[in-house]
């Protein structure tokens, strides 16, 4: 019986590429599972990216991207008695208006016990608030982190091209998106921050 013919170099390369691709996919899946081990954040990740067939939520969908560009800065704060380290993973991004974008914040619980926090946000200058749209974010939802747990928190957003047509906003080139974590919405209300926070739009629905 004749021995099976040896695979050609091209076939060997294709097999190797399939193995490498499969391994990379497993690594990516593992990283996603670890980064979003917190159930609410995993659901949010699915909403932001469409992963696992999850429908994205929000008040509106971005229109066609325009030539006008703005820089979006990301700020992060925490209530004094909340033992978390909370920061934006990128200080800023420059985006085209009408273009969907995703940015990430990161939170770490520095306490030796589980700690729950709730975030509020605001957008400045206030006059651009009507043109800044979040299609998904982690605000207004309780997030509980285990001792030492670190998580990534995504926010999806776009800037309405109409910002370039409004005489009050067309010269604005920088927008700041700020998130502040409190222990609870009651704490935020007592501090006065809840009254000046952005509207509860684009937050992932509680389940």
Summarize the structure.
It is a single-pass type II membrane protein. This protein is α+β, with helices and mostly antiparallel strands and about 210 residues long. The chain is built from three helices and nine strands, in the order ααβββββββββα.
Could you describe the 3D structure shown?
It is a single chain. The chain is α+β, with helices and mostly antiparallel strands and 207 residues long. The chain folds into two domains: 9-36; 41-196, Ctag/Cox11 (Pfam 04442) (Sandwich). The chain has helices spanning 9-35, 39-49, 185-191; strands at residues 69-78, 84-88, 92-96, 101-109, 115-124, 132-136, 142-145, 150-159, 174-182. The protein is built from three helices and nine strands; from the N terminus they run ααβββββββββα. Mean pLDDT is 74; it is low at 19-58 and 200-207. A five-stranded mixed beta sheet has the order 3-1-9-5-7. The chain has a four-stranded antiparallel beta sheet with strand order 2-4-8-6. The protein is elongated.
Any key phrases for this structure?
207 residues; alpha+beta; Ctag/Cox11 (Pfam 04442); 5-stranded mixed beta sheet; 4-stranded antiparallel beta sheet; 3 helices; 22% helix; disordered C terminus; transmembrane; membrane; Cyt_c_oxidase_assmbl_CtaG
């Amino acid at each position: 019986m004749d021995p099976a013919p040896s695979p050609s170099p091209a076939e060997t390369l294709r097999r190797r590429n399939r193995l490498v691709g499969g391994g990379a996919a497993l690594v990516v899946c593992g990283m996603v599972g670890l980064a979003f081990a917190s159930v609410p954040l995993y659901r949010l990740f699915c909403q932001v990216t469409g992963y696992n067939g999850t429908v994205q939520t929000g008040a509106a969908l971005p229109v066609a991207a325009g030539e006008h560009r703005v820089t979006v800065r990301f700020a992060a704060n925490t209530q004094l008695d909340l033992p978390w380290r909370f920061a934006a993973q990128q200080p800023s991004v420059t985006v085209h208006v009408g273009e969907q974008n995703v940015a990430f914040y990161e939170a770490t619980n520095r306490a030796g016990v589980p700690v729950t926090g709730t975030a509020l946000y605001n957008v400045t200058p206030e006059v651009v608030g009507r043109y800044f749209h979040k299609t998904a974010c982690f605000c207004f939802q309780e997030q509980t982190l285990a001792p030492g747990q670190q998580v990534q928190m995504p926010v999806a957003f776009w800037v309405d091209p109409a910002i370039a047509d409004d005489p009050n906003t067309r010269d604005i080139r920088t927008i700041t998106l700020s998130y502040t974590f409190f222990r609870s919405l009651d704490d935020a209300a007592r501090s006065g921050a809840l009254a000046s926070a952005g509207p509860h739009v684009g937050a992932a629905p509680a389940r």
